[in-house]
Each structure stands twice: as structure tokens, then as C-alpha cells.
Amino acid sequence: MAVVATSYGQIGVQERGTGGVPLVLLHGVGSDKSAWEPQLADFGAKRRTVAFDYPGYGESTFLPDATRDTYAAAILAAMDALSIDRAHVGGLSLGGVVALAIHAAAPDRCASLILADSFAVHPEGQAIHDRSLAAARGLGMRGLAEARADALLAQPADPALRAEVVATMSRIAPAAYAVGAEAVWLADQRERAAAVACPTLILCGTEDRITPPTLSEALKDLIPHAAHVEIAGAGHLSNLERPAVFNRVVDAFLAGVES
Predict the structure, then answer these.
(1) pLDDT tens digit string along 163-205?
(2) What pTM was computed for the model?
(3) Coil, helix or strand at residue 101
(4) Cis peptide bond upstream of 156, omega within 30
(5) Interval 56-110: pLDDT, tens
(6) Are strands 87-92 and 49-52 parallel, antiparallel or unpaired?
(7) Angle, CA 96 vertex, CA 52 and CA 182 arms, to 5°
């Protein structure tokens, strides 16, 4: 665990490995950089692999007026601080939204995009946003996490993983969560997705009830050159629920991009 200093304040970072084209990993709205531990362990044995916290999450400085574009700019600034000029940029859910924002801001810095359980626009985004914030206010973050965990994970969920998801979400400050919820659920990046020219991988758990496979299919329609893979038996947190399959698919994609 560490932080880097940027013009957006300190940004939390977890890093493993050296060499190769770096892999940058971006977490979801109810998470932080620790959610990428299975990928840091695997890919960190092969290349430089870095997971970041958004402003207000984990060890990063809170920015009350942040947007998804602020998140993108902060991650790019953190990459600068770590001397990462160009990387494979991967994100899950909100992370995919931020990855698209990074590409829109600095396409030359994206060797590829990996968009997991994400979307360009969510047809129920406003309703999910409103319900999430109401639950956070009424139940607190731990109560929201307990209420949300079973929808995030394919059932029956592993009890240890469920407990980990609840603990991680419970650590998020309510104000930071509100900023993150707006950044993800109110996003409409269809034009940005259609402009993606770099190699792209779209992944989605077959049991994802938060951002169902139809949204990944819609993303594939916007990025027709993208590879599209469904991960059987995974819910919304496919990298944690089926890490071996997730990592194998990403590894094969990166090998193809770099061949």
C-alpha cells in the first residue's frame, strides 16, 4: 500500500511486478484498489501491474466536486507520477466508465482497454443512483453493503468473498460514495465508446444482475472491433468470483495485443 502525490492530491496505489507494458486496474463504485488482489498477484508475476484508488476512495484525497473525468485526470496524473507513459487500462463497472474517460482524454496512453461488467450508458442508471444514495443515507455504508452484496455476487456466493465485499464497501466514506455513484450510474459515454480505436476486451459475468450481459453486448455494438467474452457463473464482480478464468482471458488478450 502506498500513495503518490499529484495535482489532484494523493492517490492510493498498489503495485506489483516490473517490465513489459504496464497494466493499470480501476475499481468499482463500492470498492477500492484492494479488489484487484487476484490480478495483482497473477499479472504482477509477468509485468508491472498497478491498481489505483479514485479521489475519496481508499488512501486517496477526497475531492467533493469530482466527476468521472476528474477521476480519469487523477489516474493519468498518478500514472505520470509513476512514470507510466502508456498502459493497458482495465476497469470493472465504474472502472470501465473511467477507462473510457481516460481513453477520451488521452487515447495515445492506452495500449488497450479492458472493460469488465461495465457499459456506455445504463438504462436504469438514474434509478440505481437514487436507490443507492437513499440506502446509504438510511442504512449507512455497512447497511448498504449488507443489502447490496447478494445482488453483486452470483448465488450461492462464497461466504468469505461476501464478507470481503461487505468489509470493503463499508470502508468507503458516504460523501465519496455519492460522488462515485454519480460518476458511474449517470454516465452516457456512447460517443466516447464509438470513438475507441485501440484493442479492446469486453468481459461480463453471465449472472451479472447489476450490469447484465445485454449491456456488454451494447458496448460491443459500439466498439465492433472489440473482443467479447462472457464468464460463466460470475456475477457483477467477475474478477473476484472467477479470478482464474478472468485472468486467463485477459492474459490471452494481452498476448494477442502484444504479439
Answers:
(1) 999 999 999 999 999 999 999 999 999 999 999 999 999 999 9
(2) 0.98
(3) helix
(4) yes
(5) 999 999 999 999 999 999 999 999 999 999 999 999 999 999 999 999 999 999 9
(6) unpaired
(7) 85
Q: Is 10 exposed, middle or buried (0-12, 13-18, 19+ CB in 10 A)?
A: middle
Cα dihedral across residues 136, 140, 141, 146: positive or negative: negative
DSSP secondary structure string, 120-141? Answer: SB-TTHHHHHHHHHHHHHHHHH
Q: Rounded to whole angstroms, how far apart are CA atoms 210 and 51? A: 23
- For the record, the C-alpha cell of 248 comes out as 486467463
Kindly report the length of the chain: 259
The answer to whether 19 and 50 are in contact (CB under 8 A) is no
Cβ atoms of 56 and 173 within 8 Å: the answer is: yes
3-state class of 206 per DSSP?
Answer: coil
Nearest residue to 226 via CA among 247, 199, 205: 199
Closest C-alpha among 38, 241, 247 to residue 229: 247
Prior bond to 38 cis, omega within 30? no
- Phi, psi for 193 (deg, rounded to 5): -65, -40
CA distance 240 to 245: 10
* Residue 101, burial from CB neighbour count under 10 angstroms (0-12, 13-18, 19+): buried
Write down the pLDDT at residue 1. 65
Q: Is the dihedral of CA 187, 191, 197, 203 positive or negative?
A: positive
